[in-house]
Amino acid sequence: MQLKNFELFKQLDEEIVNDILSHIHCRSFPKKTQIVTEGDDSHSLYFLLEGRVKIYLDDDTGKEIIMNIHEEGDFFGELGLIKSIPRTASVLTLEDSRLGIMPEADFKRCIANYPAFSMSLIENLSSRLIEATETIRKLGLMDVYRRIAVTFLNLSEEEGGVRVINEKLTQQNIANRVGASREMVARILKDLRAGGYISQESNRIILHKPLPHSW
Predict the structure, then answer these.
(1) Is 90 in a helix, a strand, or coil?
(2) What whole-number distance in Å separates Cα of residue 143 and Cα of residue 141?
(3) Residue 36: which of 85, 112, 89 has the closest Cα?
């Protein structure tokens, strides 16, 4: 993916986009590279050109909580720069990835010099906040099974008449996403397999029919 195709730049004049892009350099990172560590100083804005990364937190016991998965076309790291605060979460590549990196000084200069860029950023952040609020509302009102069902629906794509999750998810991965124990997730997945609702292959999960409303 090219930087100019990011949603953040689509409403901007070409001259502005070209100037902003001149401050971004690209780097490639192998799978399982730590890009950002929670608590570190915030120095850069990142644009995901290829690959996937996970945004996560570690609690006091070392348990990992996955906050989000970003794919190409997404950007991250802006909150620490805007607020001048340390990183609020960690970021790890899930596969070989290529990132565009904008240093803090250049980001703040672009914000100050180009109101259209600032407005585009605000609109994007507002959309993320609305999505996050809706997700929190849904998950907060659901039991563990329904959290899993919603997560599976959000991650899956239509393929040949069935929905498929083309991502290798372990029981612990799923537990981290929905805020539950691995043991509880294992029991629910076992029942879904027994009922013919899902099957699991090496790197994906197939949803053979709509998941039941309750478990």
Answers:
(1) strand
(2) 7
(3) 89
Q: The pTM is what?
A: 0.68
How many CB atoms sit inside 10 A of residue 48's CB? 23
Whether 101 and 45 have beta carbons less than 8 Å apart is answered as yes
Helix (H) or strand (E) holding 50, with range, is strand 44-50
Decide if 52 contacts 70 (C-beta within 8 A): yes
CA within 13 Å, CB half, 10: 7
How far CA 148 is from CA of 10, 93, 153, 191, 213, in Å, comes to: 35, 23, 9, 13, 11
Place of tokens 């570690």: 58
Could you tell me what percentage of the chain is helix, strand and coil, using 3-state DSSP and rounding each to the nearest 5? 40, 25, 35
The string of pLDDT tens digits covering residues 131-158 is 878 777 766 656 889 889 989 988 898 8
